[in-house]
């Protein structure tokens, strides 16, 4: 009988999963080491509207920036916004879902009422209103996206918490007199990993879409480049009129690939944790 160190993990080593991890890894490298990857300083200027050449593989934009360098440097801002907003969203949803599911009663009613309120709030108009009052910035965008996208996480966490609060190990902890905070953090939160971690990847993917949409509407920080802002700049500065697909195409492809990678990793993560729970 032949054994392999990969036995039992074949499902998670499928080409789609491997490619998703590779794509995510490459984008993270771009975000961490942009200068080493791009080969061109992001601040240098060349002749505007150059076609792709060996010196500029994606040409230059309207002000003469090397587009490939801008794509690489933009990964940092896009990923910071996406992962930061995703983390804030999941943490808020986790806290509210935990409290609602564990305490139930009037606390559950109040928190779920707040969740329903956030669920029906139109996010884009709210962000437009905030942008009209304050100066757009990356921090503001992260906070707004994080604070307006936690409701589905809270509902999922609440549902799972209500399932486990009657379990033997939870009842034992209550019998020994442990505090609700101790029980929630030490006993319940580990059970929620199959819910939280895949949800984080989905929220990150959603934040990428939201960032691109808001940048296209001119609601992002005008001083910082992101993939969404690159598409907006191409639209407003002659890229679409000149059919410069090498300007708006690469950032759009990066957004799509990153979304697909996050969704795939989140999906396989959820599948693995679910199967482990039923082993």
TrEMBL record:
Source domain of life: Archaea
Localization per record: Cell membrane
Residue span(s) of domain ABC transmembrane type-1: 75-266
UniProt keyword Membrane present: yes
InterPro entries, per database record: BP-dependent_transpt_permease (IPR050366), MetI-like (IPR000515), MetI-like_sf (IPR035906)
Gene Ontology BP term (one): transmembrane transport
Transmembrane segments annotated in the record for this chain: 16-37, 79-104, 124-150, 245-266
Cross-referenced PROSITE patterns: ABC_TM1
Keyword field: Cell membrane, Membrane, Transmembrane, Transmembrane helix, Transport
PANTHER family tied to this protein: D,D-DIPEPTIDE TRANSPORT SYSTEM PERMEASE PROTEIN DDPC-RELATED, OLIGOPEPTIDE TRANSPORT SYSTEM PERMEASE PROTEIN APPC
Homology family: Belongs to the binding-protein-dependent transport system permease family.
Name of the molecule in the record: ABC transporter permease
Organism of this sequence: Methanospirillum lacunae
């Amino acid at each position: 009988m032949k054994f392999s160190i990969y036995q039992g993990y074949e499902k998670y080593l499928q080409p789609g999963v491997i490619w998703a991890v590779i794509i995510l890894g490459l984008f993270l490298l771009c975000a961490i080491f942009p200068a080493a990857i791009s080969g061109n300083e992001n601040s240098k200027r060349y002749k505007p509207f150059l076609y792709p050449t060996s010196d500029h593989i994606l040409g230059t934009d309207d002000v003469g920036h090397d587009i490939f360098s801008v794509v690489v440097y933009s990964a940092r801002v896009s990923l910071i916004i996406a992962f930061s907003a995703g983390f804030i969203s999941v943490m808020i949803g986790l806290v509210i879902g935990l409290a609602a599911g564990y305490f139930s009663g009037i606390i559950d009613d109040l928190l779920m009422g707040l969740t329903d309120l956030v669920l029906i709030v139109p996010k884009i108009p709210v962000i437009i209103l905030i942008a009209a009052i304050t100066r757009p910035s990356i921090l503001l965008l992260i906070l707004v996206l994080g604070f307006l996208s936690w409701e589905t996480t809270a509902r999922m966490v609440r549902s799972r918490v209500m399932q486990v609060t009657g379990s033997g190990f939870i009842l034992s902890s209550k019998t020994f007199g442990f505090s609700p905070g101790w029980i929630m953090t030490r006993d319940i939160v580990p059970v929620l990993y199959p819910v939280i971690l895949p949800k984080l990847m989905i929220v990150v993917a959603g934040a990428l879409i939201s960032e691109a949409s808001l940048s296209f509407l001119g609601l992002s920080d005008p001083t910082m480049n992101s993939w969404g802002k690159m598409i907006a700049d191409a639209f407003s500065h002659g890229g679409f009129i000149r059919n410069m697909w090498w300007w708006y195409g690469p950032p759009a492809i990066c957004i799509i690939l990153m979304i697909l990678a996050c969704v795939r990793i989140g999906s396989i993560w959820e599948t693995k944790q679910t199967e482990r729970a039923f082993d």
